[in-house]
Amino acid sequence: MQHPKEEKTFVLIKPDGVRKGLIGEIINRFERRDLKVVAMEMYQPSKAEMDKHYPKDEKWLTRIGERTSGNYQKYGHDVKRDFGTTDTLKIGKEVRKWLVDFMVSAPIVKIVVQGPHAVDMVRKIVGPTMPHLAEMGTIRGDYSADSAISANIEHRAIYNLIHASETPAEAKHEIQHWFGKHPVFKYKRFGIDE
Ligand code: ATP
Ligand code: MG
Asked: 4-179 is classed in which CATH architecture?
């Protein structure tokens, strides 16, 4: 049984985060919250690597499509006009393609963050997917203002700075995918581990 302090999550600073010069600021948000960086690398992913990173199952795609569609309804825009369909699976597939294209458009920074409830803590520090719904004090709330609808009109993904694993199982899979056999480091942080 793993000690709660050993929970790990995978964080990826997206191309917009790198291009906005926010690498240091983003890492600082985790470190100042007493979370520990245990692996990190700047990296140019290939399209194939990015394609493997994001889930492909119908459930995930439909969820993205449903959220996109819901957002269009909420703000009085016509999803059919922009996507040519109201089928949430098809919409999800289209958004996924834009996402993969965006994620390979500049280098990313891949990071493993460790600490109690690392997965939930990091998601909380990052804030929700849609920047306009992210509270001030979260990374997305402080540094992004993109909207899904402007993104979709321009046929691109939302620029929201960071990816963070949603569950410990997803984190395990993503750490394996992005760091493989490379070591995730072990060290004691002053004041936290001793
Ligand atoms: P991430 O998985 O990147 O941490 P998330 O878990 O907050 O973000 P998901 O619902 O998993 O959000 O969506 C993955 C990513 O797909 C989002 O971060 C965003 O960049 C992009 N995305 C989601 N919905 C849309 C949309 N309607 N239009 C454009 N891009 C979208
Ligand atoms: Mg996600």
From this structure: 2-Layer Sandwich (3.30)
Q: Which residues pair with 36 in a beta bridge?
A: 114
Q: How far is the CA of 64 from the centre of ligand 1 (A)?
A: 7
Q: Are 45 and 108 in contact (CB under 8 A)?
A: yes
Ligand 1: residue of 158, 159, 167, 170 to mutate (most ligand atoms within 8 A of CB) is 158
| Distance from Cα 135 to the centre of ligand 2, integer Å | 18
Q: What is the pLDDT of residues 119-139, one digit of tens each?
A: 999 999 999 999 999 999 999
Buried-state track 9-42, b at ≥16 Cβ within 10 A, e below 16: bbbbbbbbbbebebbeebbebbeeeebbbbbbee
Across the chain, where does the E strand assignment appear?
Answer: 8-13, 36-43, 108-114, 162-164
Dump pLDDT digits (tens) for 78-92: 999 999 999 999 999
What is the pLDDT confidence band of residue 183, given thresholds at 50, 70 and 90?
confident
Find tokens 């990015």 and name the residue.
50
Residues serving a catalytic function are 163
Task: Enumerate residues lining ligand 1, CB below 6 A.
Answer: 64, 67-68, 95, 99, 129, 148, 151-152, 157-158, 160, 163-164, 166
